Amino acid sequence: MRKRVAAIIIEDKKILLVRDNWADFFSLPGGLVEEDENPEIALYRELEEELKIKVEILKLYHSYNCINTKFNLLQNDINYLVSLIRTPRASSEIAEMRWFSKENIQSEKAKISHIFLDHLRIKPLIITPSERFYPLEKTEPNVL
Questions:
Q1: What is residue 128's predicted lDDT score, i.e. its pLDDT?
Q2: Residue 144 pLDDT > 70
Q3: Count of domains in the chain?
Q4: How far is residue 81 from each of residues 7, 24, 40, 68, 71, measured CA to CA in Å?
Q5: Nearest Cα to 53, choosing from 27, 78, 25, 16?
Q6: What is the CATH number of the domain that holds 101?
Q7: Per the domain annotation, does 144 fall within a domain?
């Protein structure tokens, strides 16, 4: 099973989401954990590569397993609550980076990964055809 790490970055009651060059939806910034790599080290590496940022990991927020249908494999997603040490700047890997308020998330559900919405307890009304991740199970998230 492969692992993916992601960061939950909240500033001024807004959450940072990114759209990768290959995607038409927003999700949490992060990426794959390399073989024998510590997930926290992978998170630091991915955030530096994607957003040129340094963060402090505050805590593990939640972890869940899903099927990545693009590659037809089981994936473990690990999300951490982090605080920014440096302002983010999108790298060439990122098509778009935006801060979303709760209202933005509600109004733009079709543009945001449904798994992300599920874990925020905001059920999407529209799932775009590009959605490739379907949750199998999840742990109960901590409340922000």
A1: 34
A2: no
A3: 1
A4: 6, 24, 11, 23, 27
A5: 16
A6: 3.90.79.10
A7: no
| Amino acid 46: pLDDT | 96
Residue type, 20: D
Pair of tokens at residue 129:
């055809």
d(CA 130, CA 143): 29
HEC profile for the chain?
CEEEEEEEEEECCEEEEEEECCCCCEECCEEECCCCCCHHHHHHHHHHHHHCCCEEEEEEEEEEEEEECCCCEEEEEEEEEEEECCCCCCCCCEEEEEEECHHHHHHCHHHECHHHHHHCCCCCCCCCCCCCEEEEEECCCCCC
pTM of the prediction? 0.76
